Amino acid sequence: MLLGNDHPAVGALAGRERELGVALSGLTTALRSEPRILILLGEPGIGKSTLARAMLDVAARQGMASASGVAIDDAGAPPYWPWTQIFRRLDAEIGIAGIARREDLARDLGAIAPGVFGDATSSGDRFSHFDATARLLRSASVRRPLSLLIDDAQWADEASVLLLRYLARTMSDGRLFIVVTARDTDRTAQEIFGDTVGARIATTLHLTGLDANAVRVQLGAIVPRDIEDGELATVMRLTGGNPFLVREVGHQIEARALSPSDVTVSPSVRTAVEARMAPLPQRSARVLEAAAVLGLEFRVATAGHMCRIREEDALDDVDRLVAARLLERVEAGTWRFPHALLRDAVEARLSTSRCIELHRAAAEVIETEGGNRALKRFELARHWAVAALTGERARAATAIEAAAREARGQLAYETAGRLYRQALMTGATEIDDETSVRLWLGAGDAAARVADHAGRFDACNEAAQLARQLGRPDLLADAALAMSPIGPDLWTAATRRACAEALAGIGAGDLSLRARLIAHDVETHLYSAELYDFEPATRQALELANRCGDADAMAGALRVRQFVLGGPAHVDERAALAASMLTEGRGRGLPHLELQGHLALVDVELERGNLAIAAAEIDAVGAAAALMRDRHARFSELTARAVLAMAHGRFDECRRMAAQAFAGYAAGGDPNPFLLRSAVLSNLSHHAGVEAATLHAIEEASRPVSGEDAGLIQSLSDARVLAQAGRIEEAHTLYAGAGPAETWRPPPHVEMLTMALGISVARYLGRRGDAALLRSRLLPFRGHHVVCGTGAVAYLGPVELWTGVAARAAGSLDEAISDLEVAATTSHIVGTPGFEAEAKLELAGAVLDRAAAGDVPRARSLVAAAARVAGRLGAHALEDRARAVALRLGSADGALSRREWEVAQLVAAGHSNRGIAQQLFLSERTVQNHVQHVLNKLDASNRAQIAAWVVRRIEQRSE
């Protein structure tokens, strides 16, 4: 056994042979540079920490550098506290701070463990810090394998758990073994760890009570006599095989046997603590109580000063407490409770007044001590929050706000938000309204950072109400600008009202604030048809920003101006706007504005069909994203690369880029960008075929995650995928829910996308009138390519492809052929083979519909060319459509089901849907769906073409 027979944990691990085997297997795998995470779950005292620490000892014997961190049930614990402890110990053992400096990672790691790596100097994007942590652990493990322990993770702050989740998702190599323990009595493992539980590199073990044989072994290590069977049965009944409770009972029966009727022996931790404290001097008991208030670990000097005794005397008391098995030494000057259950039991003995007295004493002592100021802020916040119950609420609120700001600086936004709200509750009526506004805005900012949109709205709205009561338009402006511009009607109405009232109240000379408020108000309309009406407002915001020269005002004004000009009629103006962004960004040293300029040019060049230039701009976006270490920029880059790959027919690359973009967001702890992932995969399916991942993506995107309603564009995109997958009835429902096509008034940036998607769905569903109407709205933009005007999330080929499809669906065949010929030529020139093949297939269908002299040979040639390209690209949807056109040409076997063939024959015989329904005993809706399936499979536009095909098939069969 790797532990060795003399190891102190050998007896304690009796009965854990299976779990130990699984753990050792994971450790062995990790040593092969395949990272592993072992999650140990179970009730308090069940032996999770014992097994975990034993594994770290085994790892150390294998030459691994080991380090542990304990999360504590303490609202005053600093963010990333378990990781801070781990990195401290790794620095002492392998000098990990030096490794971080050599790898140029220290500036990103300062937010995780500032005492080890120094202060953070990177952006406010948590992803870069998580990524730096993963890179550091991977790099360090090359030098020496690492084994880490996060103990009591059920108490870890949210940011610490998110970091663990990131590692579980992204670590694919490195000699790294992480053991995590957690109680699952109050929350499930899924609730604590999220998707870490199901990660490829993670294994979960649930520890239960020991069996009687293991309990006998454990008692044998404590009790100096043989344990009778009856006595063992009583211990099992009292403890349920819980190792901690078994030990407690074992110590109680060392000197005498336990009978079934003995009521003096109890597995209660509270009882055990009382028994151990009873013979202690009163001063020692006071030191223990002070220690319990300080936490699981504590400094002896602090506990002594709280009790107003010298450190030397406090050390004497600590020696007594160690002898009573109530404390154990960690390092010089620092001690801890052997188990969180013991600390909890000591704290539970305290009366409310005694508890408040000790927390106040702790706060006052810590304020005078030296040490890490950042860590002290969190300790002080916890202690003052309790001490304030008997006074000095404003002082307590100040201490808690300082901790909130510290958490915000460490990007621990969940902790920051909780602390800002705690400061408000603690300060209550003793803090003034201006301070309350500041705290509410802090809470709102923290909520925004973790996409808690409801929390953001509530906090900012509270700040706005207080600003109104104070008659402070400047504070109201701060609240307005902190409010989300996108969300449910209630939220946007509140934001607009706050912007309007602030604009009415601030002076005309505050150009920067006026520009920002105007831009923010316009932003509340970005996804509505009303956006067209705000062009003058965006011009005004830009003029004010230019006059004042404020960078934030300029960035905001340019952003909303870009959206207002997002339609195809303004592509040249958007190009000029992008040039302004680049100039202003470079001239003012604003990398985010420069990045926005490159992104805007990607959209412009895609719309112009200059895909090579768009690719160069995407490279510029990638370089900027790497330099800024900005996750949002990286997401935009990867999404644009996915779109470009799809346009060029590189489908595997498209899937890979989309997956990387999505994974980056998910790992950072933010809500996944479901809508954008759905858009990319939905457009990919148009050529590559509908995959399970695409259907899953559109189902996820339909769940509200941000209060933002994608509305019309999402409905049409989803309807197209469902229709393509043969789920015609569901597509009908979504399409009908979008309202009559003549009422559609999408925002400018998705104008062409809306019309193209609408045409695609209308054709699937046989809505010839809608197709004609939507074509008329696209006609002015011939020569453009169908894209989103403010974000490279889609490329759907030349406009002529969709005007051609619509003309064919409406029966205007000469116009369809003309447009589709242009689409095929254009796609060939710009290098989009999938769209060239699609245009040729549509063209083949159109000439077959026209049936003029020479059309059949031409159609046959077009289909053959398109089929070859589709096969080379792996464009399965295009291959299916090629087979459908070939079916009409009589060069392929039938693809209709038996029922569809029956329906087709009845259509050819001139029966209506009602007549077919009566003959086949079906509902009219079912017949309608069958007819639509036949039309789609035959690439036919109307019932007459079905009839002609049926006649030809019957003739071919009779020959």
TrEMBL record:
Keywords linked to the UniProt accession: ATP-binding, Nucleotide-binding
Keyword presence, Nucleotide-binding: yes
GO cellular component: cytoplasm
Domain of life: Bacteria
Coiled-coil parts of chain: none
BP GO terms, sorted: regulation of DNA-templated transcription
Keyword Cytoplasm applies: no
Domain HTH luxR-type span(s) in chain numbering: 889-954
CDD domains linked: LuxR_C_like
Pfam families: AAA_16, GerE
Gene Ontology molecular functions: adenylate cyclase activity; ATP binding; DNA binding
Protein's recorded name: AAA family ATPase
